[in-house]
Write a structure and sequence with these properties.
The complex is a heterodimer of chains A (656) and B (326). By secondary structure, chain A is an all-alpha fold. Chain A contains 20 helices and two strands. Chain B folds into two domains: 84 residues, Orthogonal Bundle (Helix Hairpins); 162 residues, Immunoglobulin-like (Sandwich), CATH 2.60.40.420. The chains are: A mainly alpha (656), B alpha+beta (326).
């Protein structure tokens, strides 16, 4: 185990040197600010060790926004590089690293944490519970995801980034063709984050199945809860495949096995198959919660119940089942023959059927409604036509014979951005605007929200629509440059301009958050939108840490809407209030996250002795947890009464 | 109100874009020069009809609904009806997509099978066999019958089917000549096949579409479809004027580099066919060292491997015997 200190930091590129300096300065700044304002205790006790599902959710979302920034900068660099032909802004190697990290970060460290964060905040409230089934495990999930993300992110300044694409196809990703440590980061960082995600999946299945409040049968669950349940199921089914795949890939890279190599009888296509066996369900893991978010928002802002609730549920179940049966459509071109391609063409196209049902159900929810163009609703509306473009081009790609001409071109890239951006990013924005007042007690500015909306939408379409045509002209993905004679220039430039507008849209969101924190009007009304339908709006704003003073009882779908309609369930009898048992904070998950980070780092650099020493720490942590007796605490009745009185007293349907 | 205006603007910009892109550039996928690419284009055009229909119906419905049912001050006390759903409607919008999927599946499957065969009208012409070997970052074309090897360009006669037998010397690539046919992967120790006919003379661009490292962007080649007479002339000249390729030179050639065009009057198939499961590997991880922290590579395994190799080669000879008996 020899450590080559002089080669540890990536050097020789002014962009990277700049980032290294910026990272050090930011870290010094954060530490100094926390010390100056004496906030260390607040940070540790209130946040880093908190098992409160709402706080964990907020931490996930903060992480998601940061990663959106990082992934977005990667995207902008790619667009800057390709805006003009034969550009030298980035060299090939740098560009390859940038598109690899862009993909991994956007999917695994932006989309997933954002959605899991929203699930964390909303699900227990929607089902009338006080927390998730395993609060401490939930915190550990967050820390492992965060540790994985941080490990992945340091790669570009220490050791070199992965450079084999977010799909990391072998044999390129093997030591035979990428002998640096870059792709070790991929194998190990994603493994750590993946364990966290898998535990989240288990946690939410148990939470949703076992912790629903009295009367909430499965078919009375809000649509977002349904989609989260199905997403969690896919996580539990698909992520173990990824775990094993990454493990085999790591064995190849670190210990010289031959699962996917060209030498020693390895099978490179085995990686592609295993990767997409996880990878395609993964797409639905991120898109199904988004469908749930839109269902909630459209129902709320049209003042109507969701049209065809039953067929919506059946649709998501069908989509999740089909998502496991389509993986080969990612490599129709491997020459496996028309019979196999026929089967996978059909299964892939079949996904459009339940998705179409959902589309029409959303449209008919709006029909005869009263549509209010609030910020969350605008995102839900924009989703419909843009996602439609993503969907129909998906059907075009599903037709295997036609795919021979689209595969690996920018047509494909345009398609999946047209599904993932409206399908995930718009949903995340919609959810942020929608549930923000519930969590923080004030709405984000509608006016700045409109800027955010229009800049982002125009920018998005301008960036990605030209890429359909570039693909049909023969421009391929992942190519760091193109020649002048290719004729790709005008559309690439247009796309680059679009990316700038897109970035301005994101900046408007950040400004909106800043502005609203400082200036937005505060509210304590439990239902600030006025037309909400589900249980999370039945309790105080911002939500007290115990969620509900007494657990609500439910006898129909849209429980809160029924409560309002029948003016029932709002009175709170003081005698009903009993001390509430809540889980206690724990420092162990954060520490475990730190140990995993260091362990992973040593493994990446193949310093096995150091890794083994740190690995003992992981085992010690597991043993500690096994013997820990943390029974939580009780919220005293007085505190609940005091809090409930304050917010209920101001409400118009005040308790007597 | 604002929403409507925005929609109009984006619709107009999309239209503008369509017109602009239609005029300035050529969509190579829609400019086929052979029956295979034409079959795919026909399939794509067929899909456009149905997809256009879906787009028009859904977007039309969407615009109509959000316009008609938008909140206005006048309808502030409108109470929307409590609609649970409508089974009849839900069945209809399940069935229509099923019909569309069937309408798209049938020609897809037909085309899939058609692409496997020599195109109609060319069945009687004897196909020209060309072995394609992709390496980092160049394309090697071997004509076993003519005993010619070219690098980064391939000449073919028009109106004669060409069977490309694809393999790779290392990483996985994808072989694509959009004017003539769809793409197919090239994989080490595997052989895939692509049948192509050019029915027009001309020069077409071909490239790798599957990312394979630093030199990927430049991994292009040129296809020249020539009249049979020109082609024969080129074959004759290539055989007479080009040097012979030696195994040593070939090893140099396989190193991760960019090369211009080369022509040889023999083929590397004389000593190695990379599609063969026991073919020797000519890769050296040391040549792929870039910036960043160097990781361990497993050369000792390679040695073990080549020992195994000798044993396997013996089996292979037996196999070879069986095969030649076909």
């Amino acid at each position: 185990m020899d450590i080559k200190w002089d080669q540890l930091l990536v050097s020789g590129d002014p962009l990277i040197l700049g980032s290294q300096i910026a990272i050090v300065l930011t870290m010094v700044g954060v530490v100094a600010a926390l010390s100056y304002f004496k906030k260390w205790k607040w940070l540790w006790n209130g946040w880093l060790t908190s098992v409160d599902h709402k706080r964990i959710g907020i931490m996930y979302i903060i992480m998601g926004v940061l990663m959106f920034f990082r992934g977005g900068v990667d995207g902008l660099m790619m667009k800057a590089q390709t805006a003009v032909p034969e550009n030298t802004f980035l060299d090939a190697q740098h560009y390859n690293e940038v598109f690899t990290t862009h993909g991994v970060i956007m999917i695994l460290f932006m989309a997933m944490p954002m959605l899991i964060g929203i699930m964390n905040i909303v699900i227990p409230l929607q089902i009338g519970a006080r927390d998730v089934a395993f609060p401490q495990l939930n915190l550990l999930s967050f820390w492992l995801t965060f540790a994985g993300a941080m490990l992945f992110n340091v790669s570009f300044v220490i050791g070199g980034s992965p450079d084999a694409g977010w799909t990391s196809y072998f044999p390129l990703a093997g030591k035979e063709f990428t002998p640096g440590v870059g792709n070790n980061y991929y194998m190990i960082a994603l493994q750590i984050a993946g364990i966290g995600t898998l535990m989240t999946g288990i946690n939410f299945i148990v939470t949703i199945l076992k912790m629903r409040t009295k009367g909430m049968t499965l078919m009375r669950m809000p649509m977002f809860t349904w989609t989260s349940l199905i997403t969690s199921l896919i996580i539990v089914i698909a992520f173990p495949i990824f775990t094993v795949t990454l493990l085999l890939g790591m064995m190849d890279r670190l210990y010289g096995t031959h699962f996917f190599t060209v030498s020693g009888g390895g099978l490179d296509m085995l990686w592609s198959n295993l990767f997409w066996l996880w990878g395609h369900p993964e797409v639905y893991i991120v898109i199904l919660p988004a469908f749930g978010i839109y269902s909630e928002i459209i129902a709320t802002f049209t003042k109507k119940r969701l049209f065809g609730y039953g067929s919506m549920v059946i649709s998501i179940v069908l989509i999740s089942a089909l998502s496991m049966l389509v993986w080969v459509h990612h490599f129709y071109t491997m020459g496996v023959g028309p019979a196999v391609n026929t089967v996978f063409s059909i299964t892939t196209m079949m996904i459009s059927i339940p998705t179409g049902v959902k589309m029409f159900n959303w449209l008919f929810t709006m029909r005869k409604g009263r549509i209010e163009f609030t910020a969350p609703m605008m995102w839900a509306l924009a989703f419909i036509p843009t996602f439609l473009i993503g969907g129909v081009t998906g059907v075009m790609l599903a037709m295997a014979a036609a795919d021979f001409q689209y595969h690996n071109t920018l047509f494909l890239v345009a398609h999946f951005h047209y599904t993932l951006i409206p399908g995930v990013v718009y949903a995340v924005f919609a959810a942020l605007y929608y549930w923000w007042p519930k969590v923080f007690g004030f709405k984000l500015s509608e006016k700045i929200g409109k800027w955010h909306f229009w800049l982002f939408n125009i920018g998005f379409n301008l960036t990605f629509f030209p890429m359909f045509f570039l693909g049909l002209q023969g421009a391929v993905r992942r190519s760091y440059t193109y020649s002048e004679e290719s004729g790709f220039q005008p559309l690439f430039l247009l796309s680059g301009v679009g990316a700038l507008i897109l970035a301005a849209g994101f900046a408007a969101l950040c400004y909106n958050i800043y502005w609203s924190i400082r200036h937005a009007e505060r509210t304590t009304a439990n239902d600030p939108w006025g037309n909400a339908r589900t249980l999370e709006w039945a309790t105080a704003t911002p939500v007290p840490h115990y969620n509900f003073a007494t657990l609500p009882e439910v006898d129909s779908l849209d429980a809160y809407w029924e409560m309002k309609k029948n003016n029932k369930g709002f009175t709170l009898d003081k005698n009903q209030i009993k001390p509430i048992h809540m889980p206690g904070n724990s420092g162990l998950p954060a520490i475990m996250g730190g140990i995993f980070l260091v362990f992973g780092f040593f493994l990446v650099f193949e310093w096995h002795l150091l890794a083994a020493i740190v690995g003992i720490g992981i085992i010690a942590g597991l043993i500690m947890r096994s013997f820990e007796s943390n029974d939580g605490y009780h919220v005293p009745v007085d505190e609940i009464v005091k809090h409930e009185r304050t917010w209920r007293g101001e409400s118009k349907w005040k308790a007597k | 109100m604002k929403k409507k205006k925005g929609l109009l603007v984006s619709a107009m910009s999309i239209l503008l874009l369509l017109v602009l892109s239609g005029c300035e550039t050529n969509l190579v996928v829609f400019d086929p020069k052979g029956p295979q690419a034409r079959a795919i284009m026909d399939l794509i055009n067929w899909s456009f009809i149905w997809i256009g229909l879906v787009l028009v119906v859904v977007v039309g419905l969407f615009v109509y609904i959000i316009w008609k049912y938008r909140a206005r001050p006048e309808n502030a006390d409108y109470e929307p009806p409590d609609e649970k759903g409508n089974h009849k409607l839900e069945v209809i919008w399940t069935l229509i997509p099923i019909v569309i999927v069937i309408l798209l599946t049938i020609p897809t499957v037909k085309t899939l099978y058609a692409l496997e065969e020599v195109p109609e009208g060319y069945e009687d012409v004897e196909p020209l066999v060309i072995h394609v070997t992709s390496a980092d970052w160049k394309w090697i074309f071997s004509y076993p019958e003519e005993d010619i090897e070219t690098v980064n360009y391939v000449n073919i006669p028009v109106d004669r089917p060409v069977t490309f037998k694809l393999t790779s010397a290392g990483t996985m690539q994808s072989f694509w000549i959009p004017s003539l046919a769809g793409q197919e992967y090239t994989m080490n120790k595997m052989e895939t096949e692509l049948i192509v006919v050019a029915d027009e003379e001309g020069s077409f661009f071909g490239r790798n579409t599957n990312f394979n490292g630093e030199g990927y962007a430049g991994m292009e080649f040129e296809v020249q479809a020539q009249s049979p007479a020109d082609y024969e002339k080129w074959v004759k000249e290539a055989k007479e004027l080009s040097p012979k390729l030696t195994e040593e030179e070939y090893k140099e050639l396989l190193k991760p580099t960019h090369l211009g065009r080369l022509t040889y009057s023999n083929t590397h198939l004389d000593w190695v066919d990379h599609a063969d499961h026991n073919a020797e590997l000519y890769i050296d991880p040391e040549l792929y060292r870039g910036h960043g922290y160097p990781g361990k590579i497993f050369t000792e395994d390679e040695n073990e491997n080549s020992e195994n190799h000798e044993n396997m080669n013996m089996d292979e000879e037996e196999h070879g015997g069986e095969h030649s008996g076909h």
